[in-house]
Amino acid sequence: MTSNTLTPAPSIFSYRKYWAHRFGVAPVLPMSQAEMDALGWDSCDIILVTGDAYIDHPSFGMALIGRLLEAQGFRVGIISQPDWTSAQDFTKLGRPNLFFGVTGGNMDSMVNRYTSDKKIRSNDAYTADGAAGKRPDRAVNVYSHRCREAYKDVPIIIGGIEASLRRIAHYDYWSDKVRKSVLLDSKADLLVYGNAERQIVEIAHRLAQGEPIVELKGIRGTVHFVKQIPEGWRVKDSTDIDKPGAISPIQNPYQEEPTCDKKPDDSTAIAGEIAIPLTSVSSIKQLMRDSRSQTVIRLPAYDSVKEDPILYAHASRVMHGETNPGNARPLIQLHGTREVWINPPPIPLTMKEMDGVFGLPYSRLPHKEYGNANVPAFEMIQHSVNIMRGCFGGCTFCSITEHEGRIIQSRSEDSIIKEIEAIRDTSPNFTGHISDLGGPTANMYRLACKDPKIEVACRKPSCVYPGICPNLDTNHAPLIKLYRRARALPGIKKIFIASGLRYDLAVESPEYVKELVTHHVGGYLKIAPEHTEQGPLSKMMKPGMGTYDRFKEMFDKFSKEAGKEQYLIPYFIAAHPGTTDEDMLNLALWLKSHGFRADQVQAFLPSPMSIATAMYHSGKDTLHKVSRKAADISIPKSIKQRRLHKAFLRYHDPKNWPLLRDALKDMGRNDLIGNGKYHLIPSFQPKGTGETLNKAQQFKTKFTGFDNKSANKGFSKDKKVRNR
């Protein structure tokens, strides 16, 4: 790797196929011995264990990884939602020849099971008929332990979003403590983080060639143990990069190393700890790059960060600074007596590789084991098409960037069109409607830095905050062309855009907004300003409401021109770090003035490893240097305050009025209580809607600030909002 280009990686389809490719392609990956027998298999080379129902569709991680490994020639079996109370289910496909691959599923198992108020959810969208309780808490740990019980000597590789977000010591919201890297807790041999295609293909082929799992070191996108620092590597302490303490000037995000105030003498210069003969500026830069490429950053040890929230926030800042594949350095963190080595992120897939992955022979259906049962997640995505992955937005509360990276990886137009045609021609219940043409973000397709040299060197956490980077190409023309070609296909009646839209990018292309509004909105368009107030917005790294207003003006204009009555549906987050009660009141007043009434609301959930979670745990603004003297920010942690913040979002719900009346009185805003048009809530209380609590409920509310009966149900992936 150099500072000017990102060294290409071998194509994931360039490996010589494993001998078992002679068995051909399976109609679906087997989940039983009977299916293995029908394929003529005596064993599986790789067994994938997942917390989800098995859907043979590229939107489901285990299907994608399984089909990719199959394309490499390996025999791949699936163990879906096993009974984790014993090792019996983990033996039903026999002993894998190479390894177990373990994931909690498409969602983190804790996020999947618990609301932001730590209440158990009543359903699971990734399970047949939405049944809850089909996976354990911390599924990656539990599944790995059962795999080890089943076959002690079989390598275990963990991956997926649950493992990815726990690759280092991380704050765990559900236990309210800092936990070790999941590599230790799971007792796995290797952790794969981020999009796993490149890593898992290399790992599988190297194991097939007889390499021991303990020798698979240094693979990008993996985490493993080391007994000692490898020869030739230089250790740099994280406090040399981001010392917790006094605020220093912001470093140029494009430079390789901090500049030095001291000028070298005529004979030598100092790069890191190496004396360099001063022959030329170019030779100094080259030596610095060479030194950097063999540098590992030592994060504070687990025992330190678990006790010190400031050190935890510091470690989070350093880790997030090492996420660009073009310049990221390895990290190392001591856990007791064991050293955890985190390699740099994987090289993003090329367009050709993306096409290859999504063009594999998926059946695009649930496994026959589920019969006629409905898997809610499948029903939602069966007629949708993923056109890209990654996100350069950098929202502090979001896990997409930590998992998929901020470099956009796009499919070709031909590949996308081919998938739409496949849905049209093979889906048994297709009615002509494509439910979504998007990805993590609807309108980042083929967007990238204008200069690859800048992209490789950049260390900014976001390309669109505090404003759109001048180096970012915001040309929406390829996406417009794709939309037009897709909707012109015979048999396609309507294509909806349901993925989250970056409206701050969209306003840069009025032509795109017109195309979207005229042809791809089904009456309502979801967007996510997340808040109206600058305090929380600055901690989220989200644009201000001025950009929302610009987009709404365009949306209304083009809807009118198209002769359509259409509405924007804005989403907002309650209780995010940096949010005060006054911020939520102002948001409620904005909602009322614009006629919005939210049916369900989202409260901030501190997911492992996110920037906002570091804020939540430390009480500091971790977008800037942290220190014990730095000012604290508002962190809504108590159940009572979190409930209040959600109540402000649902100011119209009579069940919330008693709580809001008390809060408004405490805030000195009695002027907002009354029965007039401009009051937020009325002074009267409908019978049976909040004041008739039984004694047990009154006691619980008094001492915990929380009442189960009148509480909102918390986070919902499918948030519905009425525009009245």
Would you mind describing this structure in some detail?
It is globular, with a radius of gyration of 26 Å. Among the domains are: 227-242 and 268-334, no CATH class; 574-724, no CATH class. The longest helix is centred in the last third of the chain and has 17 residues, at 545-561. It has 724 residues and is an alpha/beta fold. The strands form nine sheets. A ten-stranded mixed β-sheet has the order 2-1-3-4-7-8-14-13-12-9, with helices on both faces. Strands 23-24-26 form a three-stranded parallel β-sheet. The protein has 25 helices and 27 strands. The model is unreliable at 246-281, 283-288 and 692-724 (pLDDT under 50). The termini are far apart.
Record keyword descriptors for this entry.
single chain; 724 residues; alpha/beta; 10-stranded mixed β-sheet; 3-stranded parallel β-sheet; 27 strands; globular
Care to give the gist of this entry?
It is built from 25 helices and 27 strands. It has 724 residues and is an alpha/beta fold. It has a ten-stranded mixed β-sheet with strand order 2-1-3-4-7-8-14-13-12-9, with helices on both faces.
Which regions have little confidence, pLDDT < 50, spanning 5+ residues?
246-281, 283-288, 692-724
The outline comes out as globular
Over all CA atoms, what is the radius of gyration? 26 Å
Strand order of the largest sheet: 2-1-3-4-7-8-14-13-12-9
Spatial gap, N to C terminus: 55 Å
Please give the largest β-sheet.
Answer: 10 strands, mixed
- Total strand segments: 27
- Helix-strand category: alpha/beta
Mean pLDDT: 89
Bin the helical content: 25-40%
Strand percentage lies at: 5-15%
If helices are DSSP runs of H or I spanning 4 or more residues, what is the number of helices? Answer: 25
